[in-house]
Amino acid sequence: ITSTPSKFVHCIVWAKELLFAKLFGDKNQDNDLNVHSKDGSSSKLDVFERDVDEDLDQYAQRIYDHVFGYNIEVALENEETWKNRRRPNPVYIRDTLPEAVKQNGSSWDCSNDHEEPSAMASLGLTNPQEIWTLAENSRVLLEAFKLFFEKREKEIGNLVFDKDDQLAVEFVTAAANIRAHSFGIPLHSLFEAKGVAGNIVHAVATTNAIIAGLIVIEAIKVLQDDYKNYRQNDILS
User: Fold this and answer.
1) Which of 29, 33, 77, 189 is 20 to 30 A from 16 via CA?
2) pLDDT tens string 70-108
């Protein structure tokens, strides 16, 4: 599911259970992500650890290139895996956001004065039902990454994905979409991704809202002593 995804839900699982957990959760827990590079000087080091002299932009871009570029190239080395599967395409920041590389990650001016940090708000993205482009997903991912370290640094190491955590949903949506692009899987909007990540079936949620509304209508009748028009149904399950 995580190494050879064929559906968007597989990408969500990867983004939520592996990448998000590795970056922001308990670092002592086992994780299937490849954490080493071929660089002999750092082969024994976890690439997810931030270097002492590394600024946040460089750190975010390095993680991006490792998980969406290098790890895909490593996977492609196993020819047997791709005999009957579509070969994925490595994605590097230099290709999706070349201006970010040239300007060391500061190619857009993002300000976030909201009480709850939001990459969407920082980048001026307002429609959660709009499907972002690869470049937009990349910007959201990098911005969410930075906001976690700038606004919620004390929580890092203890974070667990929560569908009601806007910044977490933005990060997971963007990461899942970038991986989906790499594997030729259709991209999804934040609204759709949130439903998948939070195990929400939107049709059921809508039905619950309708039933709740009908209950309120009957409750009003009770308060008004309108018992003639009161409806009561017993549901057995």
Assistant:
1) 77
2) 999 999 999 998 998 999 999 999 999 988 776 654 444
State the DSSP string of 91-154: --HHHH-HHHHHTTT-SS-----SSS--HHHHHT---TTSPPPHHHHHHHHHHHHHHHHHH-GG
Whether 96 is in a domain gets the answer: yes
As a whole number of angstroms, the distance between CA 72 and CA 3 comes to: 9
Contacts 24+ apart (CB under 8 A), 217-221: none
Residue 156 DSSP code: T
Contacts of 215 (CB under 8 A, 6+ apart): none
Closest CA to 25 of 37, 16, 33: 16
* Residue 232 sits in the same domain as residue 138: no
Query: What is residue 88's three-state secondary structure?
Result: coil
Q: Tell me which residue of 167, 173, 165, 148 sits closest to 59, measured CA to CA.
A: 148
